[in-house]
Amino acid sequence: MSYPDPRYFGAKGQVSAAFRPASPAPDTGVVSYVATQKDTGGEFGLYKIDMPPRSMGAAEHFHRTISESFYVLSGEVRLYNGDRWLTAGQGDFLHVPVGGLHAFRNDSADPVSLLLLFTPGAPRDEYFEKVAEYAQRSRAELKAFRIKHDQYDTDLLDD
C-alpha cells in the first residue's frame, strides 16, 4: 500500500482547519452528526449512534458506493459481519468494505454508544432524519428511499 496521490500542492500549507463546537450539532434522537460530508468536503461522514436497550439498528444490508465502519464507545452491540453475529464492546471495531453485508442491533438491557464512519462522505443526513417516516409507508416507497441513499436491504431486494 502507498499513500494516495497528492491533492494539495502548496509549499507551506494553509490555514484550513474547521472547528465545530459540540452543541450545535444536529441531533435526530438516536443519531448525532459529528462530521457530515458537507463538513469534510465529501471525504467522510462521522456519526454517533446512541441506542436504547433492546433496539434494532439496521437490518442486513449493503452499500454500493460507501464503506461503513463501526467503533464501539460504550455498551455491547451486536454486529453482523455478513457471515455471523458478533458481540462487540468498548473499543471494538468493524470495517465493512463497499458491497459488504452487515447489520447491527442492541440486544442488551443497557444503552450502547458507537461511532459510524462512512467513506467517502455521502449525504446520509436525510436518510437518518426520514428513515423512520419512510418505514411507515409502503414497502415500495421504503425501498426507493433506501436505494436513493445507497442502502440495499436484503429483505427488500426481491420486491
How many DSSP H or I helices? 2
What name does CATH use for the topology of the domain at 31-123? Jelly Rolls
Instruction: Write down the overall mean pLDDT.
Output: 90
Helix content: 10-25%
The string of secondary-structure elements, in order, is EEEEEEEEEHHE
Number of strands: 10
Question: What this model shows, in words?
Answer:
With 159 residues, the chain is mostly beta strands. It has a domain of 93 residues: Jelly Rolls. It contains two helices and ten strands. The longest helix has 11 residues. The chain is globular, with a radius of gyration of 17 Å.
Concise account of the structure shown:
The protein is mainly beta. 13% of the residues lie in helices and 35% in strands. Helix 1 packs antiparallel against helix 2.
List keywords for this structure.
mainly beta, five-stranded antiparallel beta sheet, 159 residues, 13% helix, 2 helices, Jelly Rolls
How do the strands and helices of this protein lay out in sequence?
Blueprint: E1 31-35, E2 45-51, E3 55-62, E4 67-74, E5 77-80, E6 85-88, E7 93-96, E8 102-106, E9 112-119, H1 125-135, H2 139-148, E10 152-153
Helix pairs in contact: 1-2
